[in-house]
Amino acid sequence: MDRKYKVMVVEDQTMPRQLFERFIRSSEHYELAVSIDNASIADIYCLNQKIDLVLMDVITKKGVSGLEVAERIKKKHPHIKIIIVTSMPECSWIERARKIGVESFWYKEISDESIINLMDRTMAGESVYPDSSPVVELGLANSTDFSSRELEVLREMTGGYTNPEIAEHLFMSVASVKTHIQNMLDKTGFRNRTELAVKARESGLVILEQRESF
Amino acid sequence: MMTFGDMSELSCGLLLAYFMLQLILVMISLIIVVSIGSKFFSFFLNIVLLISGFVFVCMAVLTIQGKEKGEFLWFRRIPVAVIFVYIIVFACICAADLWYLLRWKNSHITMHSIKESLDLMPTGLCYSLPGGMPVLVNQKMTELSVLLTGQEVLNADHFWEILQEKADTEIVLELPDGTFCSFTRKRLSFQNKDIYELIASNITTQYVLNKRLKNDNLRLKQMNERLRKYNQNVEEATREKEILAAKVRIHDQIGYLLLAAKRVLTMDSDAQARKNLLRLWQQDTTLLVHNPQENAASDSLSDLENAACSLGIRICYQGSLPPDGSRACELLPLVVHECLTNAFSHAQATELIVSLGETGEDYTIKCCNDGEIPDKPLVEGGGLSNLRKHIENGGGTMMVSCEPVFVLSIILPKGSDDDGQKI
Q1: Alpha helices by DSSP H, B267-370
Q2: Which distant-in-sequence residues (6+ apart) come within 8 Å of A14 by Cβ?
Q3: What's the CA gap between B158 and B260, in Å, rounded?
Q4: Is B109 helix (H, G, I), strand (E, B) or coil?
Q5: Angstrom distance (rounded) from CA A89 to CA A155
Q6: Nearest-angstrom CA–CA distance, B279 and B311
Q7: Taking Cα atoms as reference points, which of B58, B92, B90 lies closest to residue B75?
Q8: Of A53, A76, B363, B402, which cross-links B328 as Cys (Cβ 3.0–4.6 Å)?
């Protein structure tokens, strides 16, 4: 390799960002091109910084979705490799990252592999994804006990939406929404929908992203 | 042949008592005929029966009283068989008429049957003419009127005005017995005449359930609002969690460094090892002493300015920023972002000018740059069309012009925003 790979870090937390910066600076193969806390401007830096790799957090400053920005970067600069880094077990993100064309996905706290190893493998052309999102307990149930449709309803519930609003967002009937909620209450043993939504959001199983960027 | 004069006084008395009963039946038939109102033949028949019966009773009484004086001999000479035949024929006609009348009454709707059935209804009804004259008021409505106004419905218009004064938009009144009654009034047309129908319905169950539903919905709304706020705050909690996890890692690292330092201090080590150890200490202590709090002043616009600097472009703002929380304030970074990428990619500009203004009802944003003028007609790509979608969703309009220079003009409605802040 005749030059170091230029890496952009997009992470809104100072400490994890500094850790990433430290790993990159101490590596022989990488150099830090830019380190920012707001994903919304990441694509601007890609215009002239000759970025090779982006370490992208999912929820960044002001709630801007790293996945949304990753999609934008991939459309304009398909050669830039992206690793999504997150500490949240949100079940839909892995699938969404694959769909966007993100190369790799890394869980900050539970991945066995170090980030530098993952960066090496990614730059070597590998696409490294965890087999599944971390299993999270929710009341009496595990995250694997829920159907994908139930998780979609649960995700909307965490946004404080009413049943008719959820039905409208997910293109289903209000009766179906009620049925899904009741099924989830039966599985988890929670007393009401509020408890279910709060616990689900606390666990990070479902995270409702902003509907618009910025 | 035995005549009426040959009968004993007791027999005459019994005969007259029986005949009086028949007269009572005739009178009942007459009352029924009058109540029905349209049976003229029965009316006439019953009048004839009543008169002939009355004459018969009078003659019989006078004959009995004048027996000793020898008066009314012609009546005393009437054979008993004839009198019995008269009484039997009288009874048959009377019974047949009564049977016919009762049967007719039970199989036909009359004014009285309508009133009677309306009185049995649990709903209050009042039909009135223009001007308020009541035509038909059932028992329930009369009771309600007495409860609410202290008197029967004398004028339906006046009663309706009183009800309207007692209630707000929809007339639902709580009665003294704790029930809820809904009043509705509508105009009907009957035989080309206007008639007003006032209906009072007991909606206690629906009202209580509706009230409970309203309370539940209000509680749900408040709960959802709290959930929305919680959803925003939970991101902060997540950050704290991540910081804690990072601190744990650094703590482990420092443990390792302490062991390494002890080894370096207690054993002979070269300068390079000491230098490496010092570097590691510096790195970890830097992480710990650095204040993890975010810089509050660094907002989206200043982030954009920094990004623009990296492209060699200066963003120059003119005018007042839209107030925080306004739609224009939310969309401004998106506008600047799009113009910045276009200014770099298509115009090789060095300066982006963002003019902010406001009219009575709108905020205006105008962006232009000092770069090259487009040499061909502009086609809105993904970025601009996406921006247009956001602007139009916010109720605004977006215009792009390329002559003489590229200008992006946006107008966004103010809504209920506050005053802007000077840059």
Answers
A1: 271-289, 300-311, 327-345
A2: A37, B290, B291, B292, B293, B294
A3: 99
A4: coil
A5: 13
A6: 33
A7: B58
A8: B363
Contacts for B383-386: CB closer than 8 Å, 24+ residues apart: B383/B338, B383/B341, B383/B342, B384/B338, B384/B342, B386/B338
Band (A7; pLDDT cuts 50, 70, 90): very high
Q: Which residues are bridge partners to B399 per DSSP?
A: B409
Residues of A in contact with B224 (CB under 8 A): 160-162
Is the bond leading into B404 cis (omega within 30 degrees of zero)?
A: yes
- Nearest chain A CA: its distance from B248 CA (Å): 11
Give A201's contacts in chain B (Cβ within 8 Å). Answer: 230-231, 234
Give CA–CA dist B134/B155, Å, rounded. 6
Q: Which residues contact A130 (CB under 8 A, 6 or more apart)?
A: A94, A105, A106, A107, A111
Give the integer Cα–Cα distance in Å for B367 and B408: 5
Q: Which residues contact B21 (CB under 8 A, 6 or more apart)?
A: none
User: Nearest by CB to B242, which of A16, A22, A212?
Assistant: A16
Using alpha carbons, list the distances in angstroms from residue B342 to A72, B328, B352, B364: 15, 21, 10, 20
Which two tokens mark B112?
A: 């009285």
Adjacent-strand bridge partners of B228: none
Tell me the per-residue pLDDT of B5-44, one tens digit each, with 9 for 90 and over: 788 888 888 888 888 888 898 998 888 888 877 678 888 9
pLDDT in tens, A167-190: 999 999 999 999 999 999 999 999
Interchain contact B153–A (C-beta under 8 A): no
pLDDT digits (tens, 9 = 90+) for B207-259: 889 889 889 888 888 888 887 777 767 766 766 776 777 777 777 777 877 88
Q: What is the value of pTM for the model shown?
A: 0.58
Could you tell me if B8 lies within 8 Å of chain A, comparing CB atoms?
Answer: no
CA distance A125 to A34: 22
Both structure tokens of B398: 């977006």
**Are the C-beta atoms of residues B50 and B30 closer than 8 Å to each other?**
yes
pLDDT per residue as tens digits for the range A191-213: 888 889 888 888 888 888 755 44
Lookup: tokens for B412: 């966004």
Residue whose tokens read 């830096």: A45
Nearest by Cα to B334 from B308, B364, B300 = B300
